[in-house]
């Protein structure tokens, strides 16, 4: 009883396995060699195996791939995915040359691809190594020849010059051999190798011909479609795939019904299927019969007329901003009036229905989102549903109030750039520069990296506050910036160089203090440079915040000075100012004293010398004159002249003239002093004029000059008055002076005046 139950279960299990067998077909298997079937050594090669399989079930099929090289299995892999099998050959060598084939096995069904030959050309250069480069005669040299990177069966040859020494083949990429060298001297050795690829090196002769006859399989599958013509979308198509051959066993083959690459159904002797016709789905149907290695295929293609066109979704207005009200319209432009009418079409929004209200068939009203969104709509009629293309709505962002600024430093009188920029706003944005509210220049920004710049020039710092920016990216909505506020640089005026103290009102002497002041008008900060005679002054001790300061001047500080002033806008230079430093007053006084006192001392010495000598002469010239009669008030003036003495001596010649000579003094006259002149060259002459002459002036001559002597008489009525006449001291020029009444005595004497030149 137990044995019967076990046998029953086994039979049931076998039946269930048979009925659980999945329906599939292997359409084709192809092998590809990438990048090419002919490559050079070192190329990365990929052998790709591609299998096209159709299955009725949704469960994946287990696929067993095999890669063959020269009919030898070189790679096997099992996969459940439909992706291609890749067999990589990195850095291909000559040994990879051969015929490749791909095979796939699914649940016992196996198909192989056609062979493709890969040819790799190019061998690496052999390397020869010796154990010793210097040996004794009769010794052997151990040589090793290598084929870097090569694989397979390789035949090596060793040469001395062109003579082969030894050859051998190995299944590797190097060979070591003992090389006998018979003669003395220098031997040149090298090696080569050959890689054996049997298909390329050896080829057999053709065999005897054997004739084989192959007959065609007469049964073919039959595909029936109803209706076959005048088919519209939504029509139901009845498909029938059969094969009629009473000689065949119904269990020996399978029928597969497909639409395009999609398998619809499968069966043994006949299969049928009903499908809804669609214009966008390929209407090519296939009935395939497979039995062993036999494949028979019948295909049919029908034309499906479009019932209505794919709906088109549009938006109004075309340009929208965040939060704007919009209208979405879904419409099918074409439909078949005899089959449907406009009321049969049902429109709907396929995405983001919230927030939209259906105003009429295919018309929806709502508000834009603050971000980008994709909208689609669908049209449906008689079981046919069509969706529109995606409509991407990117609401624009209203432009924000622009910011106004300057590029660089604005300088009065120079052109600079004003920048207008809004932090938020969709492109394009139109910017306009306003001056005192009047539009000047427009600028349209269409690219993200563009900047709205406006070249302007101002004549005063206050003028910069009159500029503003206006920005807009939608009609009738404008945004304005604040007034431009920026630091304006005023170029420096030409410096004025003046001093303290003022050089036009005072002189500078050594030791005085002087301050050079460079005065300019312009924007701070201002830097100053001082120059003397073209050379820059770098003394930090003299520099001050107001100028160049000399605490104690010296003669070396004199010269031509000028200053340079600079700010961020300009560098200007003053006119030159000449500073003259005079010698200190005490030095001048010392020099003047030295220059004056020395000559004065010399002059004083000379004066004292001549004065002392003159004193002696004047003392000798004093004469003692005494009248013979009583004393009178007549005064006598004496004049010294060498020329008179000489003239008197030459002109008298024995005439009666009263000439003063030494006379013995009267013994009884005590009032008269006798003077003896020490100088023998000086002579004195007494001239007595009669009273008939001019009592006031008496002409005297010295050479050709007339000299007047002064005659003084005593007052009239004086006691003891005698008419002695007048006494005159005259120079003689060869004429005899007039002689008057002379009194032998004179009552007094006077100094004679010096001769008049």
From TrEMBL:
<dbReference type="InterPro" id="IPR013783">
    <property type="entry name" value="Ig-like_fold"/>
</dbReference>
<dbReference type="InterPro" id="IPR050488">
    <property type="entry name" value="Ig_Fc_receptor"/>
</dbReference>
<dbReference type="InterPro" id="IPR007110">
    <property type="entry name" value="Ig-like_dom"/>
</dbReference>
<protein>
    <submittedName>
        <fullName>Platelet endothelial cell adhesion molecule-like isoform X1</fullName>
    </submittedName>
</protein>
<keyword id="KW-0732">Signal</keyword>
<dbReference type="InterPro" id="IPR003598">
    <property type="entry name" value="Ig_sub2"/>
</dbReference>
<feature type="domain" description="Ig-like">
    <location>
        <begin position="402"/>
        <end position="485"/>
    </location>
</feature>
<keyword id="KW-1015">Disulfide bond</keyword>
<dbReference type="GO" id="GO:0006955">
    <property type="term" value="P:immune response"/>
</dbReference>
<feature type="signal peptide">
    <location>
        <begin position="1"/>
        <end position="20"/>
    </location>
</feature>
<dbReference type="InterPro" id="IPR003599">
    <property type="entry name" value="Ig_sub"/>
</dbReference>
<feature type="region of interest" description="Disordered">
    <location>
        <begin position="738"/>
        <end position="757"/>
    </location>
</feature>
<dbReference type="InterPro" id="IPR036179">
    <property type="entry name" value="Ig-like_dom_sf"/>
</dbReference>
<dbReference type="GO" id="GO:0007166">
    <property type="term" value="P:cell surface receptor signaling pathway"/>
</dbReference>
<feature type="transmembrane region" description="Helical">
    <location>
        <begin position="589"/>
        <end position="610"/>
    </location>
</feature>
<dbReference type="GO" id="GO:0009897">
    <property type="term" value="C:external side of plasma membrane"/>
</dbReference>
<feature type="domain" description="Ig-like">
    <location>
        <begin position="495"/>
        <end position="578"/>
    </location>
</feature>
<keyword id="KW-0325">Glycoprotein</keyword>
<dbReference type="Pfam" id="PF13895">
    <property type="entry name" value="Ig_2"/>
</dbReference>
<keyword id="KW-1133">Transmembrane helix</keyword>
<dbReference type="Pfam" id="PF17736">
    <property type="entry name" value="Ig_C17orf99"/>
</dbReference>
<keyword id="KW-0472">Membrane</keyword>
<keyword id="KW-0812">Transmembrane</keyword>
<dbReference type="InterPro" id="IPR040878">
    <property type="entry name" value="IL-40-like_Ig"/>
</dbReference>
<dbReference type="GO" id="GO:0004888">
    <property type="term" value="F:transmembrane signaling receptor activity"/>
</dbReference>
């Amino acid at each position: 009883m137990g044995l019967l139950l076990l046998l029953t279960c086994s039979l049931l299990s076998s039946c269930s396995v048979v009925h659980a067998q999945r329906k599939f077909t292997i359409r084709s298997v192809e092998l590809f060699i990438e990048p090419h079937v002919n490559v050079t050594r070192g190329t990365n090669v990929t052998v790709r195996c591609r299998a096209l399989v159709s299955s009725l079930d949704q469960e994946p099929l287990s696929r067993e791939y095999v890669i063959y090289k020269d009919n030898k299995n070189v790679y096997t892999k099992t996969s459940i995915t439909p992706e291609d099998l890749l067999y990589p050959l990195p850095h291909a060598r000559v040994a990879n040359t051969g015929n490749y084939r791909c095979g796939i096995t699914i649940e016992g069904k196996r198909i192989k691809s056609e062979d493709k030959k890969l040819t790799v050309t190019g061998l690496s250069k052999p390397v020869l190594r010796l154990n010793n480069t210097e040996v004794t005669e009769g010794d052997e040299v151990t040589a090793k020849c290598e084929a870097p990177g090569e694989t397979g069966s390789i035949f090596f040859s060793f040469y001395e010059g062109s003579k082969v020494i030894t050859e051998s083949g190995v299944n590797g990429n190097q060979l070591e051999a003992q090389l006998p060298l018979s003669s003395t001297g220098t031997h040149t050795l090298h090696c080569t190798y050959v890689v054996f690829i049997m298909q390329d090196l050896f080829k057999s002769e053709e065999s005897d011909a054997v004739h084989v006859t192959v007959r065609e399989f007469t049964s073919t599958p039959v595909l029936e479609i109803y209706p076959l013509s005048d088919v519209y979308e939504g029509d139901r198509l009845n498909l029938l795939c059969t094969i009629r051959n009473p000689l065949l066993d119904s269990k020996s083959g399978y029928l597969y019904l497909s639409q395009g690459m999609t398998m619809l159904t499968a069966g043994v002797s006949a299969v049928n299927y009903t499908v809804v016709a669609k214009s966008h789905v390929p209407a090519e149907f296939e009935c395939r019969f497979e039995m062993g290695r036999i494949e028979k295929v019948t295909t049919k293609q029908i034309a499906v007329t479009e019932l209505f066109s794919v709906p088109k979704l549009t938006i109004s207005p075309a340009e929208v901003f965040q939060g704007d009200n919009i209208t979405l319209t879904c419409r099918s432009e074409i439909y078949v009036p005899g089959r449907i009418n406009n009321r049969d079409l049902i429109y709907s929004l396929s995405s983001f229905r919230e927030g939209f209200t259906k105003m009429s068939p295919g018309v929806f009203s709502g508000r834009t989102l603050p971000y980008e969104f994709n909208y689609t709509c669908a049209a449906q009629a008689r079981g046919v549903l069509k969706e529109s293309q995606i409509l991407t709505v990117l609401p624009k962002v209203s432009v924000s109030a622009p910011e106004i600024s300057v590029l660089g430093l604005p300088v009065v009188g120079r052109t600079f750039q004003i920048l207008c920029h809004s932090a938020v706003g969709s492109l394009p944005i139109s910017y306009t520069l306003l001056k005192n509210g009047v539009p000047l220049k427009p600028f349209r920004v269409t690219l993200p990296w563009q900047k709205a710049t406006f070249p302007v020039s101002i004549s005063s710092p206050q003028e910069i506050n009159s500029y503003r920016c206006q920005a807009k990216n939608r009609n009738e909505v404008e945004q304005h910036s604040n007034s431009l506020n920026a630091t304006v640089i005023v170029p420096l005026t030409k410096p004025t160089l003046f001093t303290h103290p003022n050089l036009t009102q005072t002189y500078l002497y050594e030791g005085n203090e002087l301050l050079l002041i460079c005065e300019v008008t312009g924007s701070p900060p201002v830097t100053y440079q001082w120059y003397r005679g073209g050379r820059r002054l770098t003394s930090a001790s003299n520099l001050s915040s107001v100028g160049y300061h000399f605490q104690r001047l010296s003669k070396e500080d004199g010269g031509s000075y000028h200053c340079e002033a600079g700010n961020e806008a300009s560098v200007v230079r003053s006119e030159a100012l000449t500073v003259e430093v005079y010698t200190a007053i005490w030095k001048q006084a010392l020099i003047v004293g030295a220059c004056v006192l020395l000559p004065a001392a010399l002059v004083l010495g000379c004066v004292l010398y001549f004065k002392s000598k003159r004193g002696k002469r004047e003392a000798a010239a004093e004469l003692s004159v005494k009248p013979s009669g009583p004393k009178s008030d007549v005064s006598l003036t004496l004049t010294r002249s060498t020329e008179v003495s000489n003239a008197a001596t030459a002109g008298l010649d024995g005439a009666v003239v009263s000439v003063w000579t030494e006379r013995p003094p009267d013994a009884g006259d005590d009032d008269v002093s006798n003077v003896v002149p020490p100088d023998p060259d000086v002579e004195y002459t007494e001239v007595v004029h009669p009273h008939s002459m001019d009592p006031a002036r008496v002409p005297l001559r010295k050479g050709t000059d007339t000299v007047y002597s002064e005659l003084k008489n005593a007052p009239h009525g004086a006691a003891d008055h005698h008419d002695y006449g007048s006494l005159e001291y005259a120079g003689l020029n060869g004429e005899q002076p007039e002689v008057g009444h002379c009194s032998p005595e004179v009552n007094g004497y006077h100094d004679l005046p010096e001769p008049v030149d």
